[in-house]
Design goal:
The complex is a heterodimer. Chain A is 0% helix and 50% strand. In chain A, strands 2, 4, 5, 6, 9, 10 and 11 form a 7-stranded mixed beta sheet that branches. A 4-stranded antiparallel beta sheet of chain A has the order 1-3-8-7, with no helix packed on it. Chain A starts with a strand and ends with a strand. By secondary structure, chain B is an all-beta fold. The chains are: A mainly beta, B mainly beta. At the A-B interface, β4, β5, β9 and β10 of A face β5 and β11 of B.
Chain lengths: 113, 117
């Protein structure tokens, strides 16, 4: 069964450093998403991406965050200057159409120290 | 604005008991989708079910069943004859459909289910 692949599974970074989280969505999917989950809390929407641009973003997704689809397969989330409160599990997801269910990746646990 | 409430933060049962996880939602849209996801200790989100707002028929899949009641805005999940492997956090989620924007999911706070042997 097709999967959404996220790398790395765990990343530790120093406060203030830039970090890039990588995702390979399912190949025939057109919609891409990032979500985050602070430890012990609910999963929160960050951003959706369609047709090479951001289609929706939440209040969490401020100027420190950016997304990119640099080639035909990868979808990345960049955090420019990480803060302690950015420590969370980040999930990538993709869907074939705008009204279809997602497939989530297994997540990247980001720890900012 | 859409909202999903899972009032039960934690439930503990003994193996073989039946357990129901509650989910109540709020939305202004007439077309929407409801989901349940399982998050085992390993952390990934495992899709369980998707239901659209026009389909109120209850669904059964093995030991899992879902009760969608539009009149009470609820989408409850029942596990029959629970097993230790069912121990996980379960999330209910809602999506409204945006034209060409994809479907943003709003998650509930989750219910941690502990099944003891």
């Amino acid at each position: 069964e097709p999967e959404v692949t996220q790398t790395p599974s765990h990343q530790v970074t120093q406060m203030g450093q830039e970090v890039i989280l990588r995702c390979v969505p399912i190949s025939n999917h057109l919609y891409f998403y990032w979500y985050r989950q602070i430890l012990g809390q609910k999963v929160e929407f960050l951003v959706s991406f369609y047709n090479n641009e951001i289609s929706e973003k939440s209040e969490i997704f401020d100027d420190q965050f950016s997304v990119e689809r640099p080639d035909g397969s990868n979808f990345t989330l960049k955090i420019r200057s990480t803060k302690l409160e950015d420590s969370a599990m980040y999930f990538c997801a993709s869907s074939r159409t705008g009204d279809y269910g997602y497939t989530f990746g297994s997540g990247t646990r980001l720890t900012v120290v | 604005a859409q909202k999903v409430t899972q009032a039960q933060t934690e439930i503990s049962v003994v193996e073989k008991e039946d357990v129901t996880l509650d989910c109540v939602y709020e939305t202004r849209d007439t077309t929407y989708y409801l989901f349940w996801y399982k998050q085992p200790p390993s952390g990934e989100l495992v899709f369980l079910i998707r239901r659209n707002s026009f389909d109120e028929q209850n669904e059964i899949s093995g030991r899992y069943s879902w009760n969608f009641q539009k009149s009470t805005s609820s989408f409850n999940f029942t596990i029959t004859a629970s097993q230790v492997v069912d121990s996980a956090v379960y999330f209910c989620a809602l999506s409204e459909v945006y034209n060409n924007a994809g479907n943003m999911l709003t998650f509930g706070g989750g219910t941690r289910l502990m099944v003891k042997p």
